[in-house]
Amino acid sequence: MKKMNKYKMMTGLVFTLTFFLSSCVLDLEEDTSGVFSIGSLNTQSDIDAALAPAYRSMMEAYRESHRQRCITYGADDLTTWWGGNKEIFRIFDRFDYGNGESSSHPWLQYTWDQYWGTIYFANTVIDGLKSSTADENLVLAAEGEARFLRALAYFHLVRSWGNMPIIVDGVAPTGDEVRATVLENYQLIEQDLLFAEANLPAPQNVTAVGKVSLAGAKTLLADLYLTWGGWPVKDASKYAMAAQKSKDVIDMNYYSLLPFDELWKQENQNSLESIFAVQFSEAEDIRYIGPQNFHFHSAGGWSDAYPERQFFIDFPEGFRKDITFYSEIPQRVGGGGQVTETGETKPWPESQRNHPMYRKFNIAERKDLGNKLFSFRAVEVYRYAEVLLLYAEAQTRASGANAQAIEAFNQVKRRSMGLPYNVPDGSVDVATMTADEIVAEKGWELAGEYKRWFDLVRTEKVQEVTLRRDPTEEIALVRQPTEANYIAPIPQETINTSKIKQNPEGFKIQ
Amino acid sequence: MKKNFLKHTKLIRILILIISFTSSTVLLAQDITVSGVVTSAVDNATLPGASVIVKGTTNGSQTDFDGNYTINNVASNATLVISYIGFIKQEVQVNGKTTINIVLEEDTQSLDEVVVIGYGSVKKSDLTGAVSSISAKDFEKQPITRIDQALQGRAAGVSVVQTSGAPGGGFKIRVRGSNSISGDNSPLYVVDGVVLSNISSINSSDIKSMEILKDASATAIYGSRGSNGVVLITTKRGKKGKAQIELTAVSGISNLIQELPLMSASQFAEGVNFAEGMDVYSASEIEDLRINGGENWQDRLIKTGYFTNTQLSVSGGNNDVDYFVSGSYLDRDGTVINQDYKRYTFRGNMNAVVSPKIKLSLNTSYSREETVGERADLFAALSRDPTTPAFDDNGDYVFATIKPGVGNASNNPLLAPENNVREFFDDRFNINGDVDFKIAKNLTFNILGGLNTLDRVRNRYTSIIISNNARASVENRKDVSLQNTNRLTYALEKEKHNLRVDLVHEQQQTQTDITIASGSGFFSDQTTFGNLALAPIQRTENNSFSQSIQSFLGRVNYSFSDRYLFTASLRADGSSKFIKDNRWGYFPSASVAWKVSNEDFFKDVSAISNLKLRFSYGQVGSQALEPLATIPVPIIGANVNYPFGGDGATVGVAAPNRLANPNLTWETTTQRNFAIDLGLWNSKVNLSVDFYHKKTDDLLVLKTLPAFVGPTSVFENVGEVENKGIDITLGATLFRNDDWNISSTFTLSSNKNEVLALDGENDFLELGFGGPTGTFPANPTAVQVGQPISSFRGFIFDGIWQLGEEAEAANFGRVPGQAKYRDISGPNGVPDGVISADDITIVGDGNPDFTFGWNFSASYKNFNLDFLLTGSQGNDIYNFTRMKMLALGSAQFHATHADYLDRWTVDNPSNSIPATRSGTETLSTQFLEDGSYISMKNITLSYDFDLANSKFFKSLNLRLSAENLFIITDYSGFDPESTASGSSSDYSADLDIGIDIDTYPISRTFSAGLQLTF
Hints:
The complex is a heterodimer. By secondary structure, chain A is mainly α. Chain A has helices at residues 2-23, 44-63, 65-69, 87-93, 106-129, 136-161, 182-199, 214-229, 238-251, 260-263, 290-293, 309-314, 319-324, 384-399, 403-416, 435-445, 452-458, 462-467, 492-497, and strands at 274-278, 325-326, 328-335, 338-347, 357-358, 379-383. In chain A, the strands form three sheets. Chain A has a two-stranded antiparallel sheet with strand order 1-6. The model of chain A has no long low-confidence stretch (mean pLDDT 91). In chain B, the strands form eleven sheets. Chain B has a 22-stranded antiparallel β-barrel. Chain B is mainly β. The longest helix of chain B is centred in the first third of the chain and has 25 residues, at 2-26. Chain B has ten helices and 53 strands. At the A-B interface, helix 1, helix 2, helix 5, strand 3 and helix 19 of A face strand 22, strand 25, strand 26, strand 30 and strand 31 of B.
């Protein structure tokens, strides 16, 4: 009996415990309370939060000037140090690619990733807007911004690496996509920009200086059409369209040119000359590293990029040249968290890299932020001087230089000599011009600004310019460039992880 | 050898027989009273309850609480038989003596030793699975402080590699190879029944024993977390008897084993001139450097390190309660400047018998680890310009190189360690208790509850002298982990049947909360991270996540006639990391063993004292994932914000960079194990040989996606990996008599790892360590079907184009003096006359063919000599430190390595060092080396003072030790071991084994210590 009781007691104990334990059994759901969920974009704040990464990714591409410029070293506005770790720049400078060689260099992939990042985030915005309950105008303007950024990224991609797979909103890519044609890429960019043009606000109405306006969409559209008229698609009918879109921007009578030295100052970022620029921030310590890319080691930089000698010699003397380049190289030392002037300068032929050095990117430089140079100035993606030259060239190619086109060209030339740009001046004005002259002028006006290479490719002048190259350049050519050098090898990681075929094999125009 | 051995033992036996025979006949028989004390040879502790019996009679007694015994009416020529569980039975001739003190030797090789197997324990002889056992005795004399050191080289199939020589630095432990590609391959650590994530904070002197469960039959009981093996750690308990106080103190000094050969400053300057093709340094400058020397950055950063370890423990108990309390303090600084590590530990273990049916146990431990000091950048310093001194004539730092753009792009390497502040603190607290109810005669119910917490502080400050934008960050992390295990055990021993059934329910949850506050732009270094409000830019981030697991399991152990043993188990695990439909995994196992030596037909084979065959089969799982892998997690943070107005930034919310995959489920490893255990000559020699085969399916792989997809990676269950190998343990008591005791244990492990399949579409995945930004054309390692997980990729370096080969070299765009690489493929899969990414191929791997450990112990009277020799054979190392020192890689401009003196010139047709940096690949067999080594890990000489007559002290032991006394290797880097297991700070992954890049070399340490027992 006693035994029985004890047994009962034990059984009771076990049951009680089992009950107690089963009541504190864990549930196996994850704690997601800190995970922000992306739903539809219903307010201006939702929209800006979703647009921020798309802009950011584009800014990141421009922030690292040397990596972005990597594939453009074949142009004459850029060459690099013969030593150090600049091999990938040298490969492009000497045309040592074209059959997929060097596709695996990591510097090549950086900008590629940023452009695709922009497209991904832009697509997310467009998808999020589809179910938005926000005001229709807000939704359309936001979609315009997203589609402008997507177009800009595609424009850079197709010009740099050739025809790309088409990745747009509404479809989740699998990685099995294949390359569309160059023409299909252009058409996608055109559609996006036409939408953006119709729905973006005028420049005076943008909510923040860093946001794109319809002028940005029109300018990019003009650039697209100009490119469309040249290599590789060569559809000459597009020149008139390029002229029309750039003329639209001029006719807005909103933009103007600043004196060339003023233009580059920190306080003149996002000026009336700026059509679209990527933004940096001192308040958030988001820095542009261009100033160190364009300076020699002895001047506080990395000797990544400087002009070829022939380009410098050809560059017309005058105010613009003095602002664009240093021909007397300042001697500085970096250390202790800052860059210090020694007060010394050296003429460029006796300088550390035996070349002149870009100056304009360093006008807003900061020496107090580290052992190398930085700046916070916004970087111009498109500025008004380029619109004037786009128009001049497009009009000339479409139906011959007319008075308005010549005036646009002259405005840039006048400003380059330090003269008021809108006052005719017989000492610089021309009465006639050719497309080649305009391309040359654009090279000088926008030297080092990630433009020259694409102009040389679209106008098929790479060979011509290379033949003029100073044979004493330290980076010796391995070959004269051919069409195979017009597009860069696709980063190897993408080749390894997708069905994309490497250039030139995968290159399809139409 | 064997025969000789046999002869010896026979001879000894005969001798003993003769001696005892003669002595017993000489003395007269006469009854006396004999008394004395029985103590343990291990720690000189008295043994209460030991049995002392007069041989051939029932006359005898048990020792009392203090180990004393008294027996009356003993014939003066009688023999006493003294026995105590766990000790070797001893017979002593009385020979008329009235006081006989007896010292019993612990029976280490006893097959009846009890082995912890997870949710219970079994007799070693009844094991059916593959389990390695290490007891405190194996390592307690060596000056080790960590559990991983104690594991090293002592268990077959268990690889323990020191990945860093940093004080408090990491060890990587793998049991039978790597199963998972992306997931964690670390074993599961279970301390006194509670799962812990970290063992570096446990004081190795608190350990009583460790068991490593290796095969599926042993690990399946841990189900989803058992696939990488399980390390069961049992901490010390108090012993019945008087309180025992033990004080141990060890101090030592450490130095680098080997420095790297550097060029002198003048040689470097000549090298710069050579590389630049111009006189960057004038002849007079070089002459000046030749006379005055230059800077030696290696010497600036390398120093002698010191350590002390002190600990005190008190233990004791009576029949109802026992206790063990210990505290320790370890202070160790590095062989690289500005590295300091301190560890404080405390442990209190208590057991109580509450009633005959209820037993209670409570274990608590606390530890604090302090890692202080920003580490100097050795990687950059070794390749820095030696013509620039560290300090100018005023004693101020020289920041940049005197000649701009020589050497590399790094700052003065003394700046960061000497000026930045870095303080990492980890506080861990663990408490667990269990109650054991004896419900009925054969039925026991056990409830265990455990709480673990981790408080982690990471404080950093980058001073103004480094960057005018001085930055500080304060990171706090709190992990709280709760575990509950409920076990019902039924045990039955009836005649020849022996049955045990366990039913277990277990649940565990870990909640993690992280807060990071940071500031930048400090105008003063004064408060460092102490006052973030002084920074104009401040930021806060936080993050929380949880993971939980719930399990049900059953296990049956059955043996018949002590010959046939059978074990089967099934565990069901549910994990929060998977969505509902994929949540539960079921993991069965079964094993059989046959004790051949217990069969009647074997009784006559006297040389073989034990022969057992074992076979097991089972499945275990792994949830090798971070939390939240199945749901899309947007990116939020400073990197996706955008300053639309060029000023303050708008907060951005970016789409996920990892594609969510809701279909994820368990990785499953199926393992077979076949083994033979052999004991010879009364178990004087024991041999265990285990053959195993493991196949892991549904591997959780973080796959890289092409950039155009958007998200850059996705977790998928793809592919299969195989590990097969052999573990051998050979232990022997080589010689043993009153004065001598020589024993040796040799372990050998060989594992072959192979990727059998990937996602079906690719036989190749881009995964692994990418190296410093902008350095490599591809990841140095790849995962490829038919190769081990971490296989090295690169170009095949075929020497250098020589004079006379101009035409052939020109085909590849090269000239004599440039590197020659093998053209093995092209876009169409055939050699295309172009050296491109298509010519990158598999060139080696970091996995060894086999590793071994030899633990040898010899004692003569009071002297004891112990050593541990470990080795690795057939592992390759990618020496990227040497690559950088030869002027390759990102932000590296000129060579500093002495090998550069042999560079190719017209007059020196070197075939190893190209003349130009241009055209030389960072990723090639030029930098691949054989990393095989043999290392004298530890050698210790100790002496036990006889303090039997002292009133205060029970024993004193003095010891001298050397760690890493020598390493025999062809490897040209600092040492092959710290690089042999990957450079990434993540010790869990195995994608990049054997990469030498910025490694912290291990050091040679000499130490002296004493142990005093009261």
